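Consider the tokenized backbone below.
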């Protein structure tokens, strides 16, 4: 089943289960890792990608 695109493709909304699932699959990470990254660097996808690249 294809994933629904997020409402704002530049931000990660942790309050949306659909978007959390989308970003976990897109970024190849667990929900816990995604939530920790957003807590560390904020909701911008570019910042989260950079965080994961460290």
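A designed sequence for it:
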């Amino acid at each position: 089943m294809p994933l629904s695109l997020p409402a704002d493709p530049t931000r990660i909304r942790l309050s949306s289960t659909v978007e959390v699932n989308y970003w976990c699959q897109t970024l190849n990470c667990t929900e816990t890792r995604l939530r920790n990254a957003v807590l560390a660097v904020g909701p911008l996808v570019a910042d989260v990608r950079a965080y994961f690249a460290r």
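The chain has a mean pLDDT of 94.
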